Automatic annotation (TrEMBL):
The gene is LOC104583021. Keywords: Disulfide bond, Signal. It holds the Pfam family PMEI. It comes from Brachypodium distachyon (Purple false brome). This is Pectinesterase inhibitor domain-containing protein. GO terms for molecular function: enzyme inhibitor activity. One of its GO terms (cellular component) is plant-type cell wall.
């Protein structure tokens, strides 16, 4: 307990942000004044966010005035947008693969339902093949997102649910087969 109190005292006196750092200490005055003006004029830009975004970019170091900061911020925006577009392009490719995977899965699942409705026995290898094929498709969709190098999988929950359901259908057919 005493160690916790000591750490708290050290943090309070030596490591906590100072008023100067909280108000832009060590940050060029042009950034501080511009961020103060922008945060007062715009509800959508917080002062701390402005300070962080502008002071963390080397491209703002050469800005002598608000116009220079506007140019730097617009340039940062263009770079970020280009990066976002690249992520979206990669996600679109992954989504196209997923659409193809799910179209195949739907065909297999609908075919299996049709076979069962028309009296196919669970020992029917074509029926089992359709159900088994269906159970692998969500994993292929997940793989497409992994290979997209975006660290994003907007279909993760749906893929998991579809995988569980399709494996359940296949498992039931396997049990009926014996």
């Amino acid at each position: 307990m005493a160690a916790m109190i000591s750490i708290g005292i050290i943090f309070f006196f030596f490591l906590r942000p100072t008023a100067a750092s909280a108000r832009g200490g060590g940050v060029p005055p042009v950034i501080v004044s511009t961020c103060a003006a922008v945060s007062k004029a715009s509800l959508s830009t917080r002062y701390d966010d402005c300070i962080h975004m502008l002071s963390s970019s080397p491209s703002t170091a050469s800005a002598a005035d608000a116009r220079g900061l506007a140019i730097a911020a617009a340039n940062l925006t263009a770079v970020r947008v280009a990066s976002t577009l690249a992520v979206l392009d990669n996600l679109m490719v992954a989504l196209q693969y997923c659409v193809a995977d799910y179209e195949e899965m739907q065909g297999s699942a609908v075919g299996a339902v049709d076979d069962l409705l028309h009296g196919a026995d669970a020992r029917n290898l074509d029926l089992l093949s359709k159900l088994k094929t269906s159970s692998f498709q969500p994993a292929f969709c997940d793989l497409a997102f992994m290979e997209s190098n975006t660290d994003k999988d907007p279909m993760e929950a749906e893929n998991l649910e579809n995988e569980k359901l399709s494996r359940l259908a296949y498992g039931i057919a396997e049990v009926l087969r014996t």
